[in-house]
Fold this sequence. Notes:
Elements (H helix, E strand, L loop, with lengths): L1 H34 L3 H4 L4 H16 L3 H8 L5
Helix pairs in contact: 1-3, 3-4
Amino acid sequence: xxxxxxxxxxxxxxxxxxxxxxxxxxxxxxxxxxxxxxxxxxxxxxxxxxxxxxxxxxxxxxxxxxxxxxxxxxxxxx
Length: 78
């Protein structure tokens, strides 16, 4: 049983890593499509920072704070 675990562990880790990467790329794609942000300017951000940026933008949009939304999105615009 432990031999099987040793054989499958790298594959399970690779699948986990690929799923995490796809989730992060989906978040970036959402920001690019919804708010017109630049992929190049979002590239240096880590996944947690992209998640926080999306949460902040969505919060400002739901509060209908246009100036705050524009100020937050301006550094990442194309």
